[in-house]
Design goal:
Layout lengths: L2 H4 L9 H22 L4 H8 L6 E3 H11 L5 H15 L6 E3 H9 L2
Antiparallel strand pairs: 1-2
Helix pairs in contact: 4-5
Length: 109
């Protein structure tokens, strides 16, 4: 359906430059749509970041998840940022953040 949109020179073929541009534009569009939809819900964060399925987030899971979603130039700052806010999110001091703690933390954002 979008062939004509990608085939910029109209020659009936999509070359590597046209494909590359379309892929970059798609990524920008996807990011724009995410921005327009607003921040993720606590449930979406839990689903995305809870890799072992225990419905709790460890500091390691949070760091890995955030690094996956931030621009490369910020990845080296994630560990320190998570370490700083962790005590405010893990309010029961269990070392894991459950849905109640996550909801409370995200409400304050």
């Amino acid at each position: 359906a979008g062939f004509e949109h990608v085939d910029k020179n109209g020659d009936g073929e999509i070359d590597e430059h046209e494909l590359s541009k379309a892929m970059r534009d798609h990524g920008k569009g996807k990011k724009l749509m995410q921005t327009l939809q607003g921040p993720p819900t606590p449930a979406e964060v839990m689903e995305e970041c809870d890799k072992n399925g225990d419905n709790q987030l460890t500091k390691k899971e949070v760091k890995r998840c955030i690094k996956k979603h931030v621009p490369p130039e910020y990845r080296d700052q994630v560990d320190e940022a998570v370490d700083q806010v962790w005590p405010m999110v893990d309010t029961d001091g269990s070392g894991k953040v459950d849905m109640k703690e996550l909801e409370a933390a995200m409400e304050k954002m």
